[in-house]
Amino acid sequence: MERIARWVPGITVVRTYEKDWFRKDFVAALVLTALLVPQGMAYAELAGLPAVTGLYTTVAALIGYAIFGPSRIMVLGPDSSLAPVIAAIIAPLVIGDSPAEAVALAGMLAILAGLIEILVGVAKLGTVTDLLSMPVRIGYLNGIALLVLVSQLPKLFGFSTDGDDFISDIVEFVRGVAEGETVVASLLLGGGAIVVMLVGRRLAPHIPWVLIAVIVSIAVVAVFDLADEGVSVVGVLPSGFPSPAFPSVPMDDLGPLIAGALAIAIISVADTAALSRSFSAKRGERVDQNHEAVGLGAANIAAGLFQGFPMSASSSRTVVAASVGSKTQLTGVLSALAIIVLLVGANSLLADLPSSVLAAVVIVASFGLFDLATLRWLARVRRTDFLASVIAMLGVVLVGVLEGLLIAIGVSLAVFVWKRWRPYTAVLGRVADTKGYHDTERHPDAYLVPNLLLFRFDAPLFFANAAFFEEQLGEAIDATPGGVRRVVIAAEPISDIDSTGAEMLQILLDDLDARGIEFAFAELKGPVKDRLRSYGLYDRIGDEFFYPTLGAAVLSYADETGVPRRDQGGEADDA
Asked: Does the pLDDT of residue 124 top 90, yes or no?
């Protein structure tokens, strides 16, 4: 049972549940449901699917995660950052205007993404999400936010466009406004909803302003018969909740769906892991990220079987649940039951909900995706990370959501490789009255032991930087006053040496031997020494030229040659 409970945490919740928790979970569920319903419907339309599928997705996600999810506070459901990705994947595959086909494709996409996420968790590959660095993730989400904002503007103004990319969406929106296609009533309802949600959130963040905006807009449409005046509304939702069924899609569509599912899995696992770590730390809990991936995958498979679409964790809904005292996943289960009751017994309750208000919900959510503060901070503290973030954002906006994700991952890897391709190097010297050996670029007055070069290379030595190592060391040797008798590599940052690095070292040693220069390592890690032994380089260098510390290397050289190892004002070396 313990082994089963490890992968099915819902069992542990049931076995350890305390009756005093129920009231808090019940109240949190009521508040959460008020947020889940309009957001679920809005994100479904953003994904190019019928609004009701957002409710199906929400129910399946909440129950699936309650059974298999490890976090007691996490809330899963339709996500504003995933919806444009889903639309980009399934839109090219839908033939004509066929909502049923779109729903089937989205369902299969959710199942495939869920299977990949479970595989990631079971194989303990949760760290694969680290391929998306923070700056690139920020840029990706900023790009998504721009796409979402622009795509919802026509709906906010009460008309539709045929744009198929960011630029054409802007052009078509401006054209529609210029040609008088705006439905003033729709714009007033949607604009008013945005004001209510944004201002209300600032004044009283614990009040469900989304629900208030929805209720007021429904009442206004019903009282003034605005649906007959050109205001687009949701209409009566299908009654009931679907039975589980495996979606049927053409075999030819599986290839694009699998590729899209992989992209969705990377995004959702990364978002869920980051959110889970954050909330778990605040609650003094520790959640295994591989188990988190399994829980997310199970929830996605459940959504796919119940006419839903891929989803992820939600920071806004999780914050709401936490702020009103949610104790366990029962909050999500009760919210799911409330939505089912709505679908079964009150499916016409939202019939007069204006589409412009759903657009307003999405637009306000897109504001939450923007992170301009971090972008400004990156521009100030690390220009390369800022540029990587901007490139990722432009990739999403100008090239496409899926292509933008690949660009984002590529930028992350490129930045990683660049920092190791051309790592920082330093010639080290002794600073008066300061222990250790320090960069002479930062300390121009540092003392250099005569004819001894202390050289630091701040990266593993591998194929991309082996030639750079040789080049930088050669320049340092040539620039040393009085020439060099021995080179000591301060090797603590060198965590690995690959075969290309070994080849370069062999050539370098031959060259230094010809010039009468000895070569040594200091502070080289044991596993890297073992690697040099396998290359035959350890014996080539000589055991006596591997020093435990830089101090020991300097002391040995000074004893052999009789040169002073420090200037007159310095401290004694720590060997």
From this structure: no
| H or E stretch covering 312 | strand 312-313
Query: In which residue are the tokens 């990949």 written?
Result: 116
pTM value surpassing 0.90: no
Q: Which residue has the tokens 């007033």?
A: 188
**What is the dihedral sign for C-alpha 121, 407, 390, 169?**
negative
Supply the angle between the helices 383-394 and 134-156 in degrees, to the nearest 10: 40
The amino acid that residue 156 corresponds to is L
Q: How many Å apart are CA 566 and CA 554, to the nearest integer?
A: 9
Is pLDDT of 476 > 70? yes
Confirm if 104 and 248 have CB atoms less than 8 A apart.
yes
Residue 271 has a pLDDT of 77
Helical H segments across 422-498, by residue range: 466-479
CA 274 to chain centre: 7
Note the pLDDT of residue 508: 96
The pair of structure tokens assigned to 72 is: 């007691």
* Helix spans in 324-400 (H): 330-345, 355-369, 372-381, 383-394
Burial class (CB in 10 A: 0-12, 13-18, 19+), 411: buried
More confident residue, 379 or 410: 379
Residues 6 or more apart whose Cβ sits within 8 Å of residue 391: 139, 407, 411
CA distance 360 to 358: 5
pLDDT at residue 401 greater than cutoff 80: no
- Closest Cα to residue 272, out of 252, 259, 289, 255? 289
State pLDDT tens for residues 524-550: 999 999 999 999 999 999 999 999 999
Which amino acid is present at 507? I
Query: What mean pLDDT value characterizes the chain?
Result: 89
